[in-house]
Design a protein that fits this description.
By secondary structure, the protein is mostly helical. The protein has a domain of 34 residues. The protein has one helix and no strands. The longest helix is centred in the middle third of the chain and has 60 residues.
Length: 67
């Protein structure tokens, strides 16, 4: 098949394809960053809760030892 389109139109199509691919990659990167942020936030909350529970257990153990 012979491409008889003008050079300007061919360049426009080429850049449109590139923009479409870049848009897909941008969306994928945004979703991966959001997923990483969600994972980091979940990990922080889990660790914070674990520290709180451990401190409560230490306080309870100290109370029992003092008795």
């Amino acid at each position: 098949m012979i491409n008889l389109l003008p050079t300007e139109t061919k360049q426009t199509y080429r850049y449109a394809r590139r923009n479409h691919i870049l848009l897909r990659w941008t969306i994928a990167c945004v979703f991966s960053l959001l997923g990483g942020a969600l994972l980091a936030t979940g990990g922080y909350l889990y660790l914070n809760q674990s520290i709180t529970n451990t401190n409560k257990q230490i306080a309870l153990t100290n109370k029992h030892l003092q008795e």
